[in-house]
Specification:
Layout: E1 6-8, E2 12-15, E3 22-24, E4 34-38, H1 45-54, E5 57-61, H2 65-74, E6 79-82, E7 85-87, E8 96-101, E9 118-125, E10 127-129, H3 130-136, E11 140-145, H4 155-161, E12 165-168, H5 179-190, E13 194-197, E14 200-203, H6 204-209
Parallel strand pairs: 4-5, 4-11, 5-6, 7-10, 11-12
Antiparallel strand pairs: 1-2, 2-3, 8-9, 12-14, 13-14
Length: about 210
């Protein structure tokens, strides 16, 4: 696997491929900590780098059958796969309607019917919440969301988790949400005590103690 690792100033390091990579502050990811990685699809290059560099335990979450088959073929040590959709805490125990990607070669499905990749076919996915994950796993240092429009409904719960670092891919470019929705979500996160570096948000005390 070819992994692209680039340093952004003295703070953020990009781990993973161009498609599946993310920028994070490695100093805020303790060795052996737990990372919630929601929306793994068929690219776990980011997760593999965290395992290699920090010996993290990855909780990979994805409701799609394609992702399940991919992980069954490639699942490394320290990677726990949950074949469910991550949803907000107020939807605990509910199944989620997921619209199948109209391109059979692509893996990403979405709960957002206006997603430009969504077909009229759907299935009902089992779900899991951050509350459930935080009650089961300890020492969670990072939450990564790449969940095709569902992230907008997750912002309040991610803030409430008090996680030190989050990486969120906002899908205003394809999901029916607007850039205004993204800016509102980002402002909500920042007003709750985080600095923003692109799609990465770091709790203020940590960012100030680790200046770029």
């Amino acid at each position: 696997m070819t992994v692209n690792k680039q340093t952004d100033g003295n703070r953020l390091t990009r781990l993973g491929t161009k498609y599946g990579g993310n920028r994070v502050d490695l100093d805020l990811i303790p060795e052996g900590s737990t990372v919630i990685s929601a929306g793994v699809g068929e690219d776990i290059s980011f997760d593999l780098e965290l395992i290699r560099l920090k010996e993290c335990r990855i909780i990979g979450i994805d409701p799609t059958e394609k992702s399940k088959r991919y992980i069954e073929r490639h699942q490394p040590d320290n990677f726990i796969f949950i074949n469910k959709a991550l949803v907000s805490n107020d939807r605990a125990g509910q199944k989620l309607k997921m619209y199948v990607n109209k391109n059979p070669k692509h893996v990403s499905d979405s709960e957002v019917s206006s997603h430009r990749a969504a077909s009229n076919k759907f299935y009902m996915a089992e779900t899991i919440t951050l509350n459930e994950l935080f009650s089961k796993y300890e020492n969670i240092s990072l939450i990564k969301l790449d969940i095709e429009g569902s992230e907008y409904k997750m912002v309040d719960d991610v803030i409430a988790s008090n996680v030190q670092q989050m990486s969120i891919e906002f899908h205003d470019f394809c999901s029916g949400y607007s850039s205004g929705d993204t800016e509102a979500a980002a402002k909500s996160i920042m007003s709750s005590g985080y600095y923003r570096f692109g799609n990465t948000f770091i709790r203020r005390g940590n960012a100030e103690n680790n200046p770029s």
